[in-house]
Amino acid sequence: MLANRQILLIVSGSISAYKALELTRLLRKAGAIVTGVLTAGGARFVTREALAGITGQRVHDDLWAAEAEIGHIRLARLPDAVVVVPASADLLARMAHGLADDLASTILLATRAPVLVAPAMNPAMWEHAATRANMAALRARGVTVIGPGVGAMAEAESGAGRLAEPDDIFAAVAGLLAPSARPLVGRHALVTSGPTHEPIDPVRYIANRSSGKQGHAIATALAALGARVTLVCGPVAVPDPPGVTVHRIESAREMLAACEAALPADIAVMAAAVADWRVAREATQKLKKEPGAAAPTLTMALNPDILATLSHHAQRPGLVIGFAAETERVVEHATAKRLRKGCDWIVANDVSGDVMGGDANRVHVITANGVEDWPEMPKDAVAGRLAARIAEALR
Ligand SMILES: Cc1cc2nc3c(=O)[nH]c(=O)nc-3n(C[C@H](O)[C@H](O)[C@H](O)COP(=O)(O)O)c2cc1C
Asked: At the fourth CATH level, which superfamily is domain 188-394?
C-alpha cells in the first residue's frame, strides 16, 4: 500500500518531535518515499541532518530557499499525503486560520492531498478553547486527526496531549492511502445546501433559518472520500468547502437551473432548504408604505420541486437523496415524502429544536429497506457517516 507513495512529513515544535524519526523509519520500511519539512519550532527539537539522514532526502525548512530549489507549490502537489507529526498548537492554529507564513503552513494551504495531523502538547494547551475551536475547524475541513493520547508527558501534568505512538500514526497513514479510503474516486456528487431567498421586491425577500452547515459538511465528506463534488448553495455564512466546485444562487428556480446544469452526476444529495413558494409577482420597484394604505397582500406561487425533478430526470443520478425537515411525525412524513418524490433515500431531521443553525443533528435515514435511527451527533459526523453509507451503496 505504501510502496513508492510520496509522503510529505512536517515536523513542528514539540518535545515529542524525536518520534517523527521512528515514524519515518516505519514508513520507509514499508516502501514510502518520505520528504521532510521542518518548522522553525521543529528545527529546535530535531536536526535537519537527522531528518535528512533517516528520510534519505533533502530536508526543506525555508520557504525562500525551497522556492529556489523546487517551489512550494510543487512541494504541495507532489505528495500522496501530508502528515504533520508532531503537530504543535501553534502550527494547528496557523492551519485553522489559513496562514501561510512559513514553508510548512504554505504547503498545508496549497496542497490537495489528504492531510493527517498528530497533535502533541501540554494538556492545558490541548484543552484550551482556542485549540478546540481550531481542531473543530480542521476536522470539518476533512483533516484526519490521530491522538493525542493520555499518558506520561514531559511535564508532570496529567490529561490528553501526548503524541500518538509511531505505530498508530503509521497505521493511520496507511489507512489514509488505502484505495478503500477514497471509494468515491471517479464519481460526481451534486449537493445542495443552505436556504433560498425568494424576492418580494428589489430589497425584500422570504427566507428560512437554514445555515448550510449540514449540506456543506456533506459536500466536504464526499470530497474526502474522493468524489468530485459540485455544491449548489443558497446565501450562507459558512465558508466554501475546500476542493469543491461551488455555485451560489439565490432563488429556488436558480437552484434548479444550476442543478440541471451540473448533471450528469452519480449522486445527488439535496440538503438545501428550498422555499416551497415564491411571491407570484416580484415587484420591480420597492413596495412603498403609503400613509393610510392597508398592508400589501402577497400572492404566492408554487416553486419547482427540485428533488422530484431530479428524481424523474432523463439524466437521473444513480442515487438521489432528499432531506426532510419536519417538526412533527418526522418518520411518517418523511416516509411518505420518499414515495411522493421518487427519490431513493430521505434523511429526515426534526427541526423543531435548534437544529437549524446548530452544530448537532439527529437524523433518520429512510430507504426502501426501512428506517435507520441515528443517534444525535455533530453535523460533520452525520455527514461522514452518510458519505460512508453512500460509498457502500455504490460499491
Ligand atoms: C521545551 C519546549 C517544548 C515544547 N513542546 C511543545 C509541545 O509539545 N507542543 C506544542 O504545541 N508546543 C510546544 N512548545 C512550544 C512550541 O515549540 C512553540 O509554540 C513554537 O512556536 C512552535 O513552532 P512551530 O509552529 O514552528 O512548530 C514547546 C516549547 C519548548 C521550549
From this structure: CoaB-like (3.40.50.10300)
